[in-house]
Amino acid sequence: MPISxxxxxxxxxxGSTLAAQVLRSQLLEPCxxxxxxGHGSAASEGKLLGTRIDLLDAFDDxxxxxxxxPKIIDVDADIVVIAAxxxxxxxxxxxxxxxxxxxxxxxxxxxxxxxxxxxxxFIVVSNPVELGVDIFASRLERRRVFGMGxxxxxxxxxxxxxxxxxxxxxxxxxxxxGEHGQSMVPLWxxxxxxxxxxxxHRALDQLKExxxxxxxxxxxxxxxxxxxxxxxxxEVPEAYEIARHALPDARIFVEPFITARSxxxxxxxxxxxxxxxxxxxxxxxxxxxxxxxxxxxxxxxLHGTCGVPITLSRDGWHPEPLxxxxxxxxxxxLNAAASIRDFTLDVLSQPQPPELELEEATI
Length: 363
Ligand SMILES: NC(=O)c1ccc[n+]([C@@H]2O[C@H](COP(=O)([O-])OP(=O)(O)OC[C@H]3O[C@@H](n4cnc5c(N)ncnc54)[C@H](O)[C@@H]3O)[C@@H](O)[C@H]2O)c1
Known about the structure:
This is Lactate dehydrogenase. The structure is a single chain. The protein is of the alpha/beta class. The protein has a domain at about 150-180 and about 190-265. Helices cover about 50% and strands about 15% of the residues. The chain is globular and about 55 Å long. The site of nicotinamide-adenine-dinucleotide has 27 residues, from helix 1, helix 3 and helix 5.
């Protein structure tokens, strides 16, 4: 069955990188289609037309059909990635301001997708991922909507552990659940190392013991304000140096912040995690990924949006059991779910902001 994929926000850092990674991966074949979707402005259409030719120049060997779709209402795909919206900036310095700005963008895109492609699979990349999932899942079949933030965080955690053990990330399986934000929950009990060397397993045990000595939140709080200060002052090497010395579970709270601030986005890592989710949905082979989904009691009796382990098919997500969580991990996950709920309710109760200023919404 041919694959038809749309990237909403394809002119952005993440959207354009994802398009390149999808084409580079050779996931798509000649009869498949990749839609680069703009948002109705002449500037976004112009940029996408240029992006299309650049992608063709790079990847046309596979003869995948690459289309520019100037308006969201004309999207036509089985898999829709939402990478449109604003991020942190000088004007929007916190997650709440980003959420308030992106809320109306999410609502508009979700309404148009609901009328146009209700049976697609929707992958939310834009932040806050949980707000996006909530809004899309309220307008579409919730099982067809998931956020990729938890997969991104899980890959980061696996890399941080692999780095400290001196092995490849391929040899580490790790899970980060909860929020794609300050309430994320890295699970030491789920870490699996596929290396056979006893030294590596001993080193992992030592790492876990070291982490257990001081609560994660305390370790993050001890370095985060300083890192924020250093990044604000433009002292990026110093900020990375502090992050490098943090233990893996705390490092993933601070390192992405430095990266996002120093290069405006995290396009390669985010696209890679999104691509892994797309590959999992197409393979439909029960491989475990992680995603923010709107739960109705399927896991730990949770109701609301939360990052959990899932499997994927083209028709949507299926929850994986979580009854093996340690008591403290379960408590952290329940707290994360409550914090997500409070944040989302707060944002949804705010008055709608005026239209985004032109210079932000043009491309
Ligand atoms: N989940 C993650 O791990 C992760 C990582 C990086 C970025 N993000 C989020 O993804 C989103 C995109 O990030 P980016 O770095 O590519 O940003 P970017 O500024 O480079 O691109 C933003 C995209 O959104 C589009 N856009 C802007 N206003 C719009 C509107 N009113 N309607 C529709 N589309 C609009 C732009 O045309 C552009 O294509 C942001 O919300 C960002 O916070 C998430």
